[in-house]
From TrEMBL:
Organism per entry: Amphiprion ocellaris (Clown anemonefish)
Topology class, membrane: Multi-pass membrane protein
Annotated ranges, domain Cytochrome b561: 343-542
Protein name per the record: Ferric-chelate reductase 1a
Every Reelin domain range: 15-185
Length: 569
């Protein structure tokens, strides 16, 4: 990066660092948010998915003056929170009730909401925590039903707004059902347990179906082994147990898909968040971020984060009708993807996902499945382009550049040999380029935004390769005095196109959709380019030398001729 760029980056990071605490109340002094409980985090509006955090109380009934323990806990970390008690009969009223006592004044502080000291609790810093315990004292004028609410900030814009907690009732009050509780069912996520040991690929094909990458690897010994297994549970096969393992760089996931394209898929994720793992299910509707993270429908969740690998196991019923999950008694393509995470949120997969070669009936017999990270259509694109620009195009330009003087007296279908060969090969190059050009667009169903400069250069190459034959069709006759203009532009555009094509190929080798062996593919390509370039230089010298000697010979011949003429006269 240039010094100017570095300077700018530094300035920018300083700006961000100094700015963030002011804008996000990392110090927890959020009395402004007393009523709405909404943090003012860049206009973010809160997560709509099921909260990974929950509130618990140690009692469901109370008398005025009682002390009640309130616990905020989560399956993942949080950086901030705002906790209040409110009148459950008037959930829309914005006034906080009762007062809190802190158990750990270093990590939390009391706030004064609606002029009532200690009626809310918040964090003191954005240090990450997973549990907060406070004591709430019921006031003398307490309403009959009190409900706890909490807003939890996982990180900056990622927060859950006003998560409803338990309702507690004054002694002697018969609880009546609440609308708020029926519209916001607080599904208690099953507490995940730690796996006793690593998974093993033993039993793959016998007791469970497995998808492994690289083929035959063992997740017990190799942390870089991507492993997914599934086995039916119970005699009546009503549920399926899944296991997932991969390098602990962020997350590992698998998806059930009707086709081999991303989109409309049922996704299961194991996400690393510092030293714990959260397991969730989601839905991917397009080439987008998975929606609706939740643990709903998953049971017997357990995980392990050790020896450089992230592993998780869970079960789910074969049919889960109202949850938007796919039925497991069907055949699906399986996707295995991994990538990085930030604050427990997943980033786009860093490599092309591994896609099973065939559809697999999830409840079907145990099998060892095969998969590939490179789609056939992208392999075709690469192969055709290489064929066009490393073979036909290359030989075609060689012929035109260096073989014009050869076979002077022979013709092929009524034209000079070099011309027929040149034209044939170049037409083939153009056809191959056009066909190969379309394939990635078919695969991506549009323009790929993360392929960098490669597609842009590819478009230039295509346009130039189409201009060349069209221009050649309208070339002036050989004896025209404008012919040299055509010759010059035709060969210049040709050379320029070839250079662009080489650059495009070099960028193409690094594309994630075609996982070629990393340094080797580029080295082979560079080796080839050097070879072609040196051959051209050598042949260029050779033809110049030949022209030179030819003109010397003809000059000599002319001199001889003149002398003879003189002698005769
Ligand atoms: C709940 O916890 C508070 C504070 O620890 C305690 O005073 C109270 O007796 C507990 N209530 C019940 C029902 O256990």
């Amino acid at each position: 990066m240039s010094p100017v760029g570095l300077c700018f980056l530094f300035f920018f990071s300083v700006l961000v660092c100094h700015w963030e605490p002011v804008c996000c109340y990392a110090n927890g002094k959020v009395t402004k948010a007393c009523g709405s409980m909404k943090p003012h985090h860049g206009g973010a509006s809160g997560q709509t998915t099921l909260s990974p955090y929950q509130l618990q109380t140690n009692t469901s009934t109370f008398s005025p003056g009682d002390q009640i323990r309130v616990i905020l806990s989560g399956t993942s970390y949080f950086e901030g929170f705002l906790l209040q008690a409110r009148d459950a009969a008037q959930p829309e009223s914005a006034s906080a009730i009762g007062s809190f006592t802190l158990t750990n004044p270093d990590r939390m502080q009391l706030l004064t909401c609606n002029n009532h000291q200690g009626s809310a609790v918040s964090q003191t810093s954005d240090a990450r925590q997973t549990e907060v315990v406070v004591i709430w004292t019921a006031p003398q004028d307490s309403p009959n039903e009190v409900q706890f609410f909490v807003t939890v900030v996982a990180h900056y814009k990622v927060f859950w707004l006003k998560v409803p907690g338990p309702i507690i009732y004054q002694h002697g009050i018969t609880p009546h059902p609440h609308q708020t509780t029926s519209t916001h069912p607080t599904i208690q996520p099953t507490t995940p347990s730690i796996l006793p040991g690593p998974f093993t690929s033993e039993g793959c094909g016998q007791s469970k179906s497995c998808l492994l990458d690289p083929p035959g690897c063992d997740p017990e010994k190799d942390p870089h082994c991507f492993y997914m297994s599934m086995s039916t549970e119970g005699t009546d096969k009503t549920s399926v147990m899944f296991e997932l393992s991969g390098p602990a760089e962020g997350y590992v996931s698998f998806a059930l898909s009707w086709d081999t394209w991303m989109g409309n898929d049922d996704v299961y994720l194991c996400i690393k968040d510092e030293d714990r793992v959260s397991v969730s299910a989601a839905f991917v509707s397009g080439r987008t971020y998975p929606e609706d993270h939740s643990q709903s429908g998953l049971s017997s969740v357990s995980w392990r984060l050790a020896d450089g690998s992230i592993q998780c196991r869970f079960s789910r019923p074969v049919k889960l009708t109202n949850q938007g999950r796919f039925d497991l008694d069907q055949g699906y393509f399986l996707f295995l993807a991994s990538g990085h995470t930030q604050y427990g949120e997943i980033r786009k997969h860093s490599r092309q996902p591994l896609i099973s070669r065939d559809r697999k009936l999830i409840t079907g017999p145990p099998q060892v499945l095969r998969g590939s990270r490179s789609p056939t259509i992208m392999k075709m694109h690469g192969a055709l382009m290489l064929l066009a620009w490393m073979l036909t195009g290359s030989v075609g330009t060689f012929i035109a550049s260096f073989y014009k003087p050869d076979w002077p007296n022979q013709t092929l279908f009524g034209q000079k040999v070099w011309f027929q060969v040149h034209r044939g090969l170049m037409m083939l190059t153009v056809i191959l380029t056009v066909v190969a050009f379309c394939l990635p667009f078919i695969y991506r169903k549009g323009w790929s935004t993360d392929a960098g400069v490669h597609p842009h250069l590819g478009c230039c190459v295509l346009v130039l390769s189409l201009i060349q034959p069209i221009a050649a069709m309208h070339r002036p006759p050989p004896d025209s005095n404008r012919r040299f203009i055509f010759n010059w532009t035709h060969s210049s555009i040709g050379i320029f196109t070839e250079i662009l094509a080489v650059a495009t190929m070099l960028l193409g080798v690094g594309q994630t959709s075609l996982p070629l062996p990393s340094p080797w593919a580029t080295s082979v390509l560079i080796g080839y380019v050097v070879w072609v370039a040196s051959l051209k230089v050598a042949l260029g010298w050779h033809s110049r030398y030949r022209k030179c000697t030819e003109s010397l010979i003809s000059e000599h011949f002319m001199v001889e001729k003149k002398r003879n003429v003189k002698n005769v006269s």
